Amino acid sequence: MQSELVLTLNHMARGGLFDQIGGGFFRYSTTPDWQVPHFEKMAYDQAMLAQTYLKAGLVLGNARDWRVAERTLDFVIHDMSAADGGFIAALSADSAVHHQAGATKEEGYFYTWTPKEATRRVWPNGTGRSQPVAL
User: Fold this and answer.
1) Going residue by residue through the chain (135 aa), what tens digit of pLDDT does each one get?
2) Number of domains in the chain
3) Looking at the domain assignment, is residue 40 inside a domain?
4) I need a surface site. Which of 43, 51, 67, 101 has the fewest CB within 10 A?
5) Angle at 32 between CA 30 and CA 37, to 5 degrees
6) Where in the sequence is the domain holding 74, given as residue range(s)?
């Protein structure tokens, strides 16, 4: 049973369910291989998964599990905190996309980068060589 748990936690942390840049877990995947998420984040999912990874880190002694839990809780504090001191229940999958004709909503748009944006983040000095950057 332990090997199945480790396999599942590893795939969830490395795949599309976990936001590799912003932290936190998306609600579910839209593909069988768990690579493409439905871009909605629920507070209760963050709480349950952070607790699961904390317990796994404690029982299994895997530092990666601790880091996933920490990044999940950091995401909640940073992105799900309300101005009045509480927390919001969810972040919608739909993001506003502004066009000349007006605004529309598109699933996951907030999480996408144009090639120019990605290049600027990965090669901030314009040399074409990777540099360590904070995302």
Assistant:
1) 789 999 999 999 999 999 998 899 999 999 999 888 888 999 999 999 999 999 999 999 999 999 999 999 999 999 999 999 999 898 877 766 666 666 666 776 666 777 887 777 776 666 656 555 554
2) 1
3) yes
4) 101
5) 30
6) 2-79
